[in-house]
Amino acid sequence: MSRTASGIGMTSLRTRTRMIERLREQGIVDEDVLAAMAAVPRHVFVEEALASRAYEDTALPLGFAQTISQPYVVARMVEVLHAGRALGKTLEIGAGCGYQAAVLAQLSAEVYAVERIGPLLAKARINLRAINQINVRLKHADGQLGLPEAAPFDSIIVAAAAARIPPALLQQLAPAGRLIVPVGGASQRLALIERRPEGLVETRFDTVRFVPLLPGVE
User: Fold this and answer.
1) What secondary structure, in 3-state letters, does the chain show?
2) Which residues contact 130 (CB under 8 A, 6 or more apart)?
3) pTM attached to this predicted model
4) Looking at the annotation, which residues are catalytic?
């Protein structure tokens, strides 16, 4: 049975609206980010058996020991990255199922998304095609190396926790660019790196919990 036939598609607008209301209650105030979250049908990006839970504020399994981040974490990271400016050319490390790339695409001129797990990247392609998202370019590659052939980037977002910020990502950050990445091991916090005229400036934000950023490809 298709997702539309099962009623998921017909109820997604209502459940998306509730998700946006909850994000506001949780402190997300950037209306551009809220509109981007509302525009993307999250149920398309999760396993069909979990589609009824797509708009809950929880991470859900994708397989391959990976998860789709909870809506609040996606919204919070994008809000910190956005902060009143256009995202411009954006690089996402850890494309996963393609959901966050789709949200970023609502706010970016173009999105480049890197994923190290080949079968997961194939799912992302299918999901993005299903919603007609055309300004996202996907690549099977080691996220720790960034995407030098498309650099520099105005915005970089990392969907996995790094013990230390990969130097390649810092090198690929454009002037006035911003990079947001979870940093740490058992204890993680969001770190925002800004390339300013005086150099790189780091600011720490919320405590989070992400899978580790691993090298290589599968």
Assistant:
1) CCCCCCCHHHHHHHHHHHHHHHHHHCCCCCHHHHHHHHHCCHHHHCCHHHHHHCCCCCCEEEECCEEECCHHHHHHHHHHHHCCCCCCEEEEECCCCCHHHHHHHCCCCEEEEEECCHHHHHHHHHHHHHCCCCCEEEEECCHHHCCHHHCCEEEEEECCEECCCCHHHHHCEEEEEEEEEEEECCCEEEEEEEEECCEEEEEEEEEECCCECCCCCC
2) 44
3) 0.91
4) 69
125 versus 2: the higher-pLDDT residue is 125
How far apart, in whole angstroms, are the C-alpha atoms of residue 123 and residue 59?
Answer: 17
Evaluated on CA atoms 99, 68, 58, 180, the torsion sign reads negative
**pLDDT, average across residues 73-80:** 96
pLDDT at 10 over 80: no
Which residues are CB-contacts of 25 (< 8 A; sequence separation ≥ 6)? Answer: none
Distance of CA 116 to the CA centre of its chain: 15
Q: What is the rounded distance in angstroms from the CA atom of residue 124 to the CA atom of residue 133?
A: 11
Tens-digit pLDDT profile for residues 83-135: 988 999 999 999 999 999 999 999 999 999 999 999 999 999 999 999 999 89
